[in-house]
Amino acid sequence: MPKKAVLLKSLTRGRIRTSFNKYNLFNIYKKSNPDFKTKSLYQQKWNAKQETRAYHGEYLTEGRWSSLFQPKLESVAQLDASLRGDGKVKDTPFLSQTYAVLEKRLDFALFRAMFASSVRQARQFILHGNVTVNGLKIRHPGYILKPGDLFHVRPDKVLEALGARKPSLSEALKVDKTQIILWNKHVKEAKENPRKVWDNKLNKHKNLPEANPKKESITTFIEKYNTKMEKNEHDELKSCTPKNMLIKLLKVQASRKDEATPLTKKDFEGVVEKSPELSHDVYKCYDALEKSKEISLEKLQGKSVKELNNVAEGLLSFTSEMKEKLSDNSKVLIRSGMKQLSDLTKAYSESIRTFYETNKASAETNYIPFDPKWSNNLRYHEKVEFESIAEDEKLASESINLPWQKHVYGRQDPRKPYFTPWKPRQFLAPFAVLPHHLEISFKTCHAVYLRDPVARPGHSEVISPFDDTVHERAYMYYVRKGK
């Protein structure tokens, strides 16, 4: 039977455990090297034993551990005699191998492979039948692995062990309420002063440290933004033809209310959206065609897009019927309008290239050109009656409609016992130390036990927060009668 989990996370005792718990991280942070100067030899050995055993197999009784302890420690010898004694080869930390025998146990291997958040949780996974070794279900936490053994943990259990805590419905709704308030405040500020909010957001990303994941996300966004701009440029240049320009012009003419309301240059700015100053040239082209009487409001009003397309084709290349019907003056005016349309198309193509070239984002400076219309797509979140949805999770999920979240916070899938969509638990990075004697696949939650951990010159494969001086005294405590 394992020892009871009593005061494992005590900040007063400050013991370091094989756990990813945040209190354990604080204990590691505040732990200082033991002071052996004022203690007797036995006190030194006892203190070292206490500290190391709290980390290495604290759940094992002292009698059980004593039966597992092996006085003979494994290491790798330096075979190249030319390197010995010249100061280049560091000492081999033999005594750091004191607890190496525990690393062979299945429960310890699961923890070292980061398939469980603590050795006690790894034991629980094994006892509940969630672990297989070489394809066979093993229910013994103390199972000794042999070199070449392949062990596997159910992926959903690994996600549970390393995932963030799932909030309760009431906790999640409190977070959602705060998020909605802050989002509506952001939308209001963006609509009132879009330039200021845009610049503040860019400056915030510029000041982030390079290692921050958000810095990487803005770099990825810039790459996608530039790719989208290049695609839009290609599509617009492809569609920038005399025929398409003429169809746009005809649509403006067909949308007039009556003949008494003349069109102005401003009405044609939509035809050359990327360069409104070219609306003057569009108007000159329109004026020439209008005088020919071939694009009068009477002829174009109420026509479909397909019919306007046919009119444009007729103006670009006269049919035999039009040649007979048109007067010489009309033909001259139409040809003049088509020449101006051809020049306009070339000028607008250059304007499109210039527009996209100047509006590309810079990956070096994390600069994205200001878009005056960016806040137009922002929408306020509808008012949510949180009291009425507090007991109905399905209704609550339907009520939350934030741009980045369409469900209750942390409960995208309420059936899962962990935070969904999955994200790693807090303070996981300091514990992410992978051992040399395991080959791990996080995609499939498999790992291979390559060999028993050994000591090399300047390095021990047994992961421990304590140095050689502490392990030396712990080893002395367990070695009896000079063995």
UniProtKB/TrEMBL annotation:
Primary location class: mitochondrion
CDD domains assigned: S4
GO biological process, one term: ribosomal small subunit biogenesis
GO MF annotation terms: rRNA binding; structural constituent of ribosome
Compartment(s): Mitochondrion
Matches recorded under SUPFAM superfamilies: Alpha-L RNA-binding motif
Domain RNA-binding S4: 104-167
Pfam family, one: S4
A cellular component term, taken from the record's GO annotations: mitochondrial small ribosomal subunit
Alphabetized UniProt keyword annotations: Mitochondrion, Ribonucleoprotein, Ribosomal protein, RNA-binding, rRNA-binding
Annotated InterPro entries: Ribosomal_uS4, Ribosomal_uS4_CS, S4_RNA-bd, S4_RNA-bd_sf
Role: Component of the mitochondrial ribosome (mitoribosome), a dedicated translation machinery responsible for the synthesis of mitochondrial genome-encoded proteins, including at least some of the essential transmembrane subunits of the mitochondrial respiratory chain. The mitoribosomes are attached to the mitochondrial inner membrane and translation products are cotranslationally integrated into the membrane.
Protein family membership: Belongs to the universal ribosomal protein uS4 family.
Name recorded for this polypeptide: Small ribosomal subunit protein uS4m
Source lineage: Eukaryota, Fungi, Dikarya, Ascomycota, Saccharomycotina
